[in-house]
Amino acid sequence: MINETRIFRGSPQYYERVRGISLGESELDFISLNMPPVCNYRCHFCLSGMNGRQRPQNGLTERELQDLIIEARDLGALHIEISGEGEPLVYRQMLENIINFASPRGLHTTIFTNGSLLTEDFLQHLAQNNASLAISLDYLDRGEYEHFAGRTNSYDAVIRNIELARNVFRRRISAENGYRVLPLAIHSIVTADNAGEIPRIKEFVGDEIFFSVAPIMNRGNTREHSDLLIDSRRTDSIINQYSDGSLIVSDSSVRDVGRPTCGTFYYGVGIRYDGEILFDAHAYDTAGLFGNIRNQAFPDLVRGLRNAQRTYFERFSGDGFCPLRNSNFDNFVQYLRQRNG
User: Fold this and answer.
1) For 109-144, what is each residue's pLDDT tens digit?
2) Whole-structure pTM over 0.90, yes or no?
3) Rounded to whole angstroms, how far apart are CA atoms 315 and 37?
4) CATH number for the segment(s) 6-340
5) 108-113/30-34 β-pairing
6) Are 12 and 266 in contact (CB under 8 A)?
């Protein structure tokens, strides 16, 4: 059963329910920064479709990232989310630089990770800078975990790292405005293969970690593993029974678009590792359709994205709380490409 009193620090609902902020009153509330598409895992439902790519050489520089953070803050941004396009901890120094620069300027950071590369000193650095952490965990069975991740001898290290994170972040749990605010989350995706694992993961998570369960998206590597797809009614039942709540859904979106929607998408902007604006932080096929922060004014790019969002909700909005879970999204991308010539 979704727990209304537990909330993940840095989620849209944290700002709305705990901080009392109405999202959308500023030009920008969230920025989602993607790390380059490099990962040490090969997960069966990876949105990036990882296939052994080499490290790209055209990523944003530290100075470009700093300039971006300042511009985003000046537009009203509250929060930096780092959840794609590869595994963020491959670029640990870049993460530390972002956090060190953003935190003193009032921007909170959340990092999404597979957890395999976490260390105690990095976890301490996150905690000391009031950052939040979400770790993906889809199996508690060692064999299933390593088969799904495409990486042998990985399970024990991840479980050990989760326990390290639990020990570090438990001291950062707080009571605010009637909520128990948790800076550490475990995030699971429901599939036909792991539905029976979700109760076990819930028990493992315990009381000191926020547990978020979300539906699978038929994109990326999932299209080669269609056996993972699961009936939406069964998914909803599992989420309602075991999830503490969402890491990304916003309350304010009900006012603005008539239903719960991903707040980091609707009130934010996704930016690829090379500066390309994305319609959604995980909509990699929209790169090149909205412009690049390297050669266009960032406020203009944000406004162009907002115009595209209006078209999306007016003409292509369908099912799903985020664009990539909408069965009409491919039609929208085709429309964008035709519009751009």
Assistant:
1) 999 999 999 999 999 999 999 999 999 999 999 998
2) yes
3) 31
4) 3.20.20.70
5) unpaired
6) no
